Amino acid sequence: MAPINSTKIHATETLAFAALQAAAAQLGQCEHPKGSNRGPMVNEYLQSVGLSPGYAWCQAFVYWCYKMAAEKTGVVNPVVKTGSVHNCWNDTTSNTTVIKLLKAEIAKRPELVKPGDQFILFYNDSAGHTGIVERVTGSVLHTIEGNSNSNGSREGYEVARHQRSIDDKTLIGFVRYTANTGFTKS
Fold first, then answer.
1. Are 16 and 179 in contact (CB under 8 A)?
2. Right CATH number for 11-177 from 3.40.50, 2.160.20, 3.30.70, 3.90.1720?
3. Does the pLDDT value for residue 94 go beyond 80?
């Protein structure tokens, strides 16, 4: 990703850029042992949403990245504090600080997806996966994801980069988080 002069960008972009920086700095962080949903950094991601080691951690990873970004930029973390992808999507409502983009909108206009947006995948009524969009090339999402692996699994063991299609049948939508002052800092 090309460097951005942060003195000339909007606060929303600064928050998203800082979240991407936090995510990129975690690339390669692994569970110890593999398959355990545990490890020094995995435990930290989970603790950031109030969970103990052993839970699936993709949503906790996104929350943690935005928590680091919010602290760095001096704003409140706008991400729903949860370890559940479904709860995050269902409890997130579009307002002045959060924009939800549905798959139907994006299918017609993929350029609406921006770096730092959270993508949401639903596999069934309770299983989901998520990560942060790094960039979009045509209809291909370049992402950074926690609890994944080189195969793109939703139950992996590391922080990894992936490519996903906007046409993915499990893709529900995206959440764009903006800088704000209206929430209680967490």
1. no
2. 3.90.1720
3. no
